[in-house]
């Protein structure tokens, strides 16, 4: 059975974070549901069109879809933890964000 998507308000606050991962600079954005849970993630790299930026943006889109369909942020963090260590822009951003 497919979980239905929790819709977001058309206008909502958005928090920005600047961070570095594997020598690349990124800007990450976090949007939240009204109850404070993370609802959407955006990531942009400093090298527009680079494979690292594209992969980070794709990961953020998939994470946002999962969050809006009921997946918890803890589940996403755990899935990114690969053998005890999380790597990549999405994991780095989520490590900076309060649950």
Give a structural overview.
It is a single chain. The chain is of the alpha+beta class and 99 residues long. It has one domain (20-96). Helix content is 34%, strand content 25%. It has helices spanning 51-68, 73-80, 89-96, and strands at residues 14-21, 24-32, 38-45. Strand 1 and strand 2 (24-32) form a beta hairpin. The N and C termini lie far apart (27 Å). The mean pLDDT is 88.
- Total helix count? 3
Uncertain parts: none
Q: How far is the N terminus from the C terminus?
A: 27 Å
What string gives the helices and strands in order? EEEHHH
Q: What is the strand content? A: 25-35%
Number of strands: 3
What's the arrangement of strands in the largest beta sheet? 1-2-3
Fraction in helix? 25-40%
Shape: globular
Using only CA atoms, what is the Rg?
A: 13 Å
Short description:
The chain is an alpha+beta fold.
Describe the secondary structure blueprint for this structure.
Blueprint: E1 14-21, E2 24-32, E3 38-45, H1 51-68, H2 73-80, H3 89-96
Antiparallel strand pairs: 1-2, 2-3
Summary keywords:
3 strands, 99 residues, alpha+beta, globular, 3 helices, 3-stranded antiparallel sheet
């Amino acid at each position: 059975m497919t979980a239905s998507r929790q819709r977001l308000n058309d206008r909502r606050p958005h928090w920005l974070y600047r961070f570095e991962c594997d020598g690349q600079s990124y800007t990450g954005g976090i949007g939240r549901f009204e109850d404070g849970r993370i609802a959407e993630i955006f990531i942009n790299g400093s090298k527009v069109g680079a494979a690292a930026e594209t992969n980070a943006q794709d990961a953020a889109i998939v994470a946002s879809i999962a969050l809006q369909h009921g997946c918890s942020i803890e589940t996403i963090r755990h899935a990114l933890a690969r053998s005890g260590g999380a790597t990549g822009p999405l994991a780095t951003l989520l490590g900076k964000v309060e649950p």
